[in-house]
Amino acid sequence: MTTEKVEERREFECSLPRPCEFSTVDGILLQKESCDIWDRIWNFQAKPDDLIIASYPKAGTTWTQEIVDLIQNEGDVEKSRRAPIALRQPFLEWIRPTTSGIDQVKAMPSPRTMKTHLPVQLLPPSFWEKNCKIIYVARNVKDNLVSYYHFQRMNKSLPDPGSWDEYFEAFLAGKVLWGSWYDHVKGWWRKKDSHPILYLFYEEMIQDRKREIRKVMEFLGKNTKEEILDKIVYNTSFDMMKTNPMTNYTNDKKLNHAISPFMRKGIIGDWKNQFTVAQNKKFNEDYEKKMADTSLSFCMEP
Ligand code: A3P
Questions:
Q1: Is residue 140 assigned to a domain?
Q2: Please, which residues have CB within 8 angstroms of residue 81's CB and are 6 or more apart in sequence?
């Protein structure tokens, strides 16, 4: 398809009404279509060599996915550009009009890598039974929230976020897709004590990408050859991924990058441009209460 045609199609798709039906599984707000076939998702049969990249939405999932794919392909950029990231590593619980994440995964040869945003208690039990490796990436809540807000503005597959003030309140109440950020990051953090989970932090990836990529390589049992590592570091910078059509989601018709690009800012501390002083105060008080029962801590300053 030509670029003009893709643009035309995107404009058309984006002008369609947004889906208004969302539903819940055990109190967690999810896409209605996923809830409708929840039994199939819950009973998904994992294989021991499956790898899952898990995260709360907008925590740096795509970044982690691209790093993993490059590691699996020994830093071969051409191989990693074989398809958009969403096809290389399907989104387990997401349903599209023509296919579903679980069907995409089932059609893949092993070893399979996939992504999920499910909170830990909703991950299909066979992943635990088969002792699959999992990489979880978490991001400080304030930047995560701001990124999520802009993503919902531009993603016509998700509900309209409303105004920033409305979204801020909905997020605090956990009334957003995939549920409460607080429960999500804490739940996965606890689980890593009893399961092979590599828990990454977006801010640490920003601070020292090379060190964090090395961690991922070690977790995946890959030899850390310096030149491969350097190649992966180079190809996973924000600027490289922003211009890479296989990672920047410009091929997704439901995303309107004119509203806000998928690869938006990629920094720590953007929340300061969005939160009012009053919102920050309210947020901090609430944060202290919700995070009092965990050893998890996040860097919120650049
Ligand atoms: P911002 O909206 O703050 O820019 P996800 O993949 O989970 O949807 O996360 C998307 C967020 O990760 C976006 O954050 C995006 O810019 C950021 N991101 C993606 N690749 C990145 C990279 N290579 N370096 C830094 N941030 C990156």
A1: yes
A2: 244, 246
Q: Write out pLDDT tens, residues 161-192.
A: 999 999 999 999 999 999 999 999 999 999 99
Which of 55, 61, 62, 213 has the most ligand 1 atoms within 8 A of CB, as the residue to mutate?
62
Could you tell me the distance, in angstroms and rounded to a whole number, from the CA of residue 114 to the centre of ligand 1? 18
CA–CA distance, 129 with 246 (Å, rounded to integer): 33
Kindly tell me the sign of the dihedral angle through the C-alpha atoms of 251, 103, 73, 48: positive
Apex CA 238: angle with CA 246 and CA 274, to 5°?
Answer: 115
Stretches in the chain below the pLDDT threshold 50: 1, 6, 10, 12, 14-15
Establish if 25 belongs to a structural domain: yes
Instruction: Please give the structure tokens belonging to residue 29.
Output: 């707000």
**Domain residue limits at 216:** 19-290
Give a yes or no: residue 135 inside a domain: yes
Compute, in angstroms, the gap from residue 62 CA to the centroid of ligand 1. Answer: 7
